[in-house]
Amino acid sequence: MTTFDRTQHTQAPTMRWPRITFIRLSLLAMLALIIASWIFVLNADGAQNHSFLSAETFNRFKDFFADLLGVGSSGTPAYAQWSEWRSTGHLAYDTLVMSVMAIGFAAIFALVFFMFGARNMMMGELAPYGSWFWRGVFFFVRGIFVVTRAIPELIWAMLIIFVLSPGLLPGAVALGLHNAGILGKLSSEIVEGLDQRPIQALRSTGAGRFQVMVYGVLPQALPRFVTYLFYRWEVIIRTAIVVGFVSAGGLGTEFRLSMSYFHFTTITLLLVWYLILVLGVDITASYLRRLAR
Question: What CATH code is carried by the domain that includes residue 221?
């Protein structure tokens, strides 16, 4: 046996443990929390008078599913009646209108204020003046973004319903306020992450602040802004039914009433309309995002 063979024969492979990083540690912590939460739900939740995985739970689910389909009911299910489809179709249309009004309000709000929430435009090297006034404007606008997006849409609707009469407008305003803060913050961060070279080139040629915004900032920021806008529209149409629970109009109000009166087949019909709306908006928004790119 040669020296090379003896060396290769005597050396044992060394095991290397994977290096601990923040991402790996976060994944392990998340996995541990998920397991612990399910252990609590299945075994230690005192609010449940019966086990989650039990015959009683299965029977309740089976009975509720049968009620949704109208099994054993003496009358015709609501989803099998054309008159019910027409009446609930108006509610679905109202929900769609509410979502369009909300995203329009959020878009206008974000377009007006997102430049004032960008740090590089108000406090950085692109700021027109280094005065305390523009710093105050920056923190004020960022504070508006924080407040509007921190309060959920349902809470906004519950507050606005006391000022405005029940209907589509309170729901649209509530959805618009919450998403205005989200769109404003995302748009401001878009401006902060833009390529500075075209902007600096405009500044070096003597372009003013307005010209820099029109020719340097907006052409880079608008495509991504439109992408975020259509994505938030998808989120709004999913949330519109929840806002309707507080008499803000649309499918949500009728859904709450149907649950209160145990009209289960009507609930099924409303869920079908809701699914149609969500799929339609998702397909439309995806197509519009591709056009914006």
Answer: 1.10.3720.10
